[in-house]
Amino acid sequence: MPSSVMPTSTRSGGYPSPAAVSAVGLHKSFGDKTVLGGIDLHIPAGSVFALLGPNGAGKTTAVKILSTLITADGGQAQVAGHNIAADPQAVRAAIGVTGQFSAVDGLITGEENMLLMADLHHLSRSEGRRTAARLLERFDLTEAAKKPASTYSGGMKRRLDIAMTLVGDPRIIFLDEPTTGLDPRSRHTMWQIIRELVADGVTVFLTTQYLDEADELADRIAVLNDGRIAAEGTAQELKRLVPGGHVRLRFTDPAVYRAAATALPGAAGDDEALTLQVPSNGSQRDLRSVLDRLDSAGVEADELTVHTPDLDDVFFALTGPANIPNQSKESVR
After folding, report:
1. How confident is the model at residue 331 (pLDDT cuts 50, 70, 90)?
2. What residues form DSSP beta bridges with 6?
3. Which domains does the chain have, with CATH numbers?
């Protein structure tokens, strides 16, 4: 199985442009433990990029380096066109960061949290109040604005956290596991917020352990394992890395079932259930080939379903003990 799916080339150099975030050979160790072992990233502006990986894979470390909270031991990176080592202040002026743990001060109101953030961004008093009011309304927090943030639900605190991040009008936002601990309704609300941000031209760098979240939101996904990028691509490209896709055919007539098995010699049969399982990558061409062979044999299935691997399968295949992290990178064209 290929260990990496790289972007299709659109310009000389192999990557689309412009990049909101790019990194080459990013390396970080803590003592004798290598957390990032030389990762490369290229994230186009106005897109959602999801970084997946198990606990301890290095996701938060990557975010901290790219947001200038800590320095890398090696490699180079640019964020919003600025070198993170040479011009960290310019990087900080262009980004917003929402960490795993809420930055909300529970002892003051939601509005006061917003105004405090406005002060930190050196907005005038009137501009700060206008910005706070606009964002509180956008995130459906106007009614709760005068209440202590400690009384907010988890979803409300997360929305306030992102509203505070947007005070400085960042064009790149790092969201480090933003929906951890939220109920399903709050998670879906957060997803909608992220979609709206991208629709406004914001680039979102998302780390998450929820594979459905990455599948739902991300334009591109990278799987980080043991400090290295094990695979990168669109959700569909990553799913094609994992074997196990198949077309399942069910029959009610044993004679028709036997005729189908003859027409599809590579299929795995279940004589009791009268089902055939034909290996498939889930593509239209693959499915048409199966149907054409059945038609040629004059056979019609009573039920047909297509099963393709999901991101859970990809995640376990790439981060489990059976994966081979040192295989060469390959491209999907």
Report:
1. very low
2. 331
3. 5-104+152-239 (3.40.50.300), 246-307 (3.30.70)
Proportion of the chain above pLDDT 90, given as a percent: 69
- pLDDT(332) > 80: no
Q: How many residues does the chain have?
A: 333
The span from the CA of 47 to the CA of 35, in Å, is 26
Collapse the DSSP code of 99 into the 3-class scheme (helix H, G, I; strand E, B; otherwise coil) and give the result. coil
Distance CA 230, CA 204 (A): 21
Q: What is the mean pLDDT of residues 34-50?
A: 95
Which H or E element spans position 74? strand 74-79
Report d(CA 111, CA 117) in Å as an integer.
10
pLDDT in tens, 228-240: 999 999 998 898 8
pTM of the predicted model, to two decimals? 0.76
What angle do the packed helices 110-120 and 125-138 form, to 10 degrees? 130
Residues 6 or more apart in contact with residue 92 via CB below 8 angstroms: 67, 68
What pLDDT was estimated at residue 321? 58
In order of 74, 124, 230, the CA distances from 38 in angstroms are 8, 43, 12
Which region holds residue 14: left if phi is over 0, alpha if psi is between -120 and 50, else beta?
left
Q: DSSP string spanning 103-128?
A: ---TTSBHHHHHHHHHHHTT--HHHH
123-to-80, 172, 188 alpha-carbon distances in Å: 22, 20, 32
What pairing do the DSSP bridges indicate for beta strands 275-279 and 268-270? antiparallel
pLDDT at 15: 46
Find out whether 172 and 80 touch, Cβ atoms under 8 Å: yes
CA 125/CA 170 separation, integer angstroms? 20
Q: Which two tokens stand for residue 140?
A: 């459906």
Contacts 24+ apart (CB under 8 A), 97-100: 97/63, 97/67, 97/69, 97/165, 97/173, 97/174, 97/176, 98/161, 98/162, 98/165, 98/173, 98/174, 98/175, 98/176, 98/178, 99/60, 99/63, 99/176, 100/60, 100/176, 100/177, 100/180
Nearest CA among 217, 229, 239 for reference residue 306: 239
